[in-house]
C-alpha cells in the first residue's frame, strides 16, 4: 500500500524510530478500524459498541489480561460500591443471581463473559510507548513494546481511542523521611488481604473508599490500624431508607436541584452515622454532590468502617509531619510507632507519558481538558473513554457516543472513497 511505503520512508528520518531501531526489530501493521489503548471496562465497552455497529477495532493492553487493575491491583474483599444496575456495560446486564453489590471475582467474571460475547481479543503484553498523529498521512501511528525490549510494533490507524483511564498508575505522595521507616511501605495496589498484618500496627494513609475498606479489612484480621485523614471528606451510608444512596440521589435529582438533594443527604447521613467531625473526619463546606460535580471527588460510602472508628478500633490522625524509623510524627504533635504503612492515595492517568498531543489532554493530570460530557472527542480522530470521573456509567455513555461518531465518519469516508473510485473508473473509460 502506498501509505505504508510512505511510512517506511518517513521512518528512516524519524529520530524516535531511529533510536528504537538501533537495538530493536519492528513491524508495521495497518488497522482498518480504531485502535483502542487499554483493555479495562472502558476499552471493552467501546470495542463492543463498535462491533454492534459492524465496525472493527484492535485493543492494545500492556498487561496479560483484561481489566488488569481489577485482576492484579485490588484487594480481595473489594465489591462494587454502586448497585450492579449502575455498573453495567452496554448491551449486557449482570446475571440475575449476582448480588446487588457484586464481588471483585464476580465483576471479573462479568467482564470476561462480556469480552467473550463480543469476541474482543486484545493484543496482550503490548505497552504503548508512543502515539502521534501524522499530519502528512492523515493517520495515527502507535508504537508498542512487548515483553522483550526487541519486540516493537507500529500500528497505523485512522482513529485512536484512549481507554487507559484515570487509574493507570499508582499515586505515591512525597512524605518526608519515608525512606527512614525501615518497615513495610506499600500502595493499596499491592494489598490483597489483612492476614499478613495480624497483630501489627498499621498506618493507612488516605480516607477514600479504598483507605476505609482496607482499615476495615485489617480490623477483621486482628491488625491494629490507624487512618490518616488530611482533607475534609464526605462519608455517607451506602444505603438510605432501604435504597442505595447513589440510586436515591439519582432519583431525587430528577425533581430537585443539587443543593436540596445535598441537604437531604447530609441530614439523613447525620441521623444514621452521627457527626463525623467528632471522630476527626471533617466534612467539606460544599455538599457531596456539589463536590463530585466540581472536583470529581467521590464521597465515601461507609460499609462498617465508621463503627470501628467510633469504637476505637481504628484511630484517626491528621496529616503526617514526617516519618522516622518505625514511627510517624503527625501535624498535631503526636508520635506513634508502626510496623507498616499502606498508601491508599489513589491513582493517576499516564496519558502524557505516551500520547504526543497537547490539545485534548492536560499535561498536568492527564485528563481531558474539556469537562464532562464534552471530554470524549478530540481532533483528528482522537477519542477518550473512561475519563469522566463518573465510573462505569460515565464510561458506557462515552463508549456509545464514540461508536456513533466513528460510524458516521466511517460511512462518510466510505462514500467519498466510493465516489472517487467511480470517478476514476469513468475517466479510464
Describe the structure in brief:
With 429 residues, the protein is α/β, with parallel strands linked by helices.
Explain the overall architecture.
The chain has helices at 2-11, 15-21, 41-52, 68-72, 104-117, 209-220, 245-252, 258-273, 288-295, 305-310, 391-428; strands at 25-30, 35-37, 58-60, 127-134, 139-145, 151-157, 160-162, 169-170, 184-187, 201-205, 224-228, 235-237, 239-240, 243-244, 300-302, 315-317, 320-324, 327-330, 335-337, 340-343, 347-348, 382-384. With 429 residues, it is of the alpha/beta class. It has a five-stranded parallel β-sheet with strand order 9-20-10-11-16, covered by helices on one side. The chain has a four-stranded mixed β-sheet with strand order 1-6-5-4, with no helix packed on it. It has a four-stranded parallel β-sheet with strand order 3-2-7-22, covered by helices on one side. Helix 3 packs across helix 11. The radius of gyration is 24 Å and the shape is globular.
Q: Oligomerization state of this entry? A: single chain
Mean pLDDT: 90
Q: Give the strand order of the largest sheet, numbering strands 1, 2, ... along the chain.
A: 9-20-10-11-16
Total of helices: 11
Summarize the biggest pleated sheet.
5 strands, parallel
The percent range for helix content is 25-40%
Share of β-strand residues: 15-25%
**Strand runs, count:** 22
Low-pLDDT runs:
none
Global structural class:
alpha/beta
Instruction: Categorize the overall geometry.
Output: globular
| First-to-last CA distance | 24 Å
The value of Rg in angstroms is 24 Å
Amino acid at each position: 500500500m502506498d501509505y505504508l511505503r510512505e511510512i517506511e520512508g518517513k521512518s528512516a528520518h524519524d529520530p524516535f524510530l531511529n533510536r528504537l531501531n538501533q537495538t530493536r526489530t519492528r513491524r508495521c501493521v495497518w488497522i482498518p478500524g480504531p485502535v483502542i489503548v487499554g483493555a479495562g471496562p472502558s476499552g471493552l465497552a467501546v470495542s463492543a459498541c463498535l462491533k454492534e455497529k459492524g465496525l472493527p477495532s484492535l485493543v492494545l493492553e500492556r498487561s496479560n489480561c483484561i481489566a488488569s487493575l481489577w485482576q492484579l491491583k485490588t484487594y480481595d474483599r473489594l465489591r462494587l460500591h454502586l448497585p450492579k444496575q449502575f455498573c453495567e456495560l452496554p448491551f449486557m446486564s449482570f446475571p440475575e443471581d449476582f448480588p446487588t453489590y457484586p464481588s471483585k471475582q464476580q465483576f471479573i467474571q462479568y467482564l470476561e463473559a462480556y469480552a467473550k460475547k463480543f469476541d474482543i481479543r486484545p493484543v496482550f503484553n503490548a505497552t504503548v510507548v508512543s502515539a502521534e498523529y501524522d499530519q502528512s498521512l492523515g493517520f495515527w501511528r502507535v508504537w508498542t513494546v512487548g515483553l522483550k525490549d526487541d519486540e516493537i510494533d507500529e500500528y497505523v490507524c485512522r482513529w485512536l481511542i484512549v481507554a487507559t483511564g484515570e487509574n493507570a498508575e499508582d499515586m505515591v505522595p512525597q512524605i518526608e523521611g519515608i525512606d527512614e521507616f525501615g518497615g513495610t511501605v506499600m500502595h493499596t495496589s499491592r494489598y490483597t488481604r489483612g492476614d499478613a498484618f495480624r497483630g501489627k500496627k498499621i498506618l493507612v494513609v488516605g480516607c477514600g473508599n479504598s483507605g476505609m475498606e482496607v482499615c476495615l479489612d485489617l480490623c477483621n484480621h486482628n491488625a491494629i490500624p490507624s487512618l490518616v485523614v488530611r482533607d475534609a471528606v464526605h462519608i455517607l451510608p451506602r444505603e438510605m431508607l432501604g435504597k442505595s444512596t447513589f440510586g436515591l440521589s439519582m432519583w431525587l435529582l430528577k425533581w430537585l436541584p443539587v443543593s436540596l438533594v445535598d441537604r437531604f443527604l447530609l441530614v439523613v447521613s447525620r441521623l444514621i452515622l452521627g457527626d463525623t467531625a467528632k471522630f476527626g473526619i471533617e466534612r467539606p463546606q460544599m455538599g457531596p454532590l456539589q463536590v463530585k460535580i466540581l472536583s470529581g471527588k467521590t464521597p465515601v460510602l461507609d460499609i462498617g468502617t465508621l463503627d470501628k472508628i467510633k469504637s476505637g478500633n481504628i484511630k484517626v490522625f491528621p496529616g503526617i509531619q514526617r516519618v522516622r524509623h518505625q514511627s510517624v510524627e503527625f501535624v498535631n504533635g503526636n508520635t506513634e510507632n508502626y510496623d507498616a504503612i499502606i498508601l491508599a492515595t489513589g491513582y493517576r492517568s499516564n496519558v502524557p507519558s505516551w500520547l504526543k498531543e497537547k490539545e485534548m489532554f492536560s499535561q498536568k493530570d492527564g485528563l481531558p481538558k474539556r469537562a464532562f460530557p464534552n471530554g470524549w472527542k478530540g481532533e483528528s480522530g482522537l477519542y477518550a473513554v473512561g475519563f469522566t470521573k463518573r465510573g462505569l456509567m460515565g464510561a458506557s455513555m462515552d463508549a456509545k457516543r464514540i461508536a456513533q461518531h466513528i460510524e458516521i465518519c466511517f460511512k462518510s469516508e466510505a462514500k467519498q472513497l466510493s465516489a472517487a473510485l467511480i470517478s476514476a473508473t469513468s475517466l479510464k473509460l
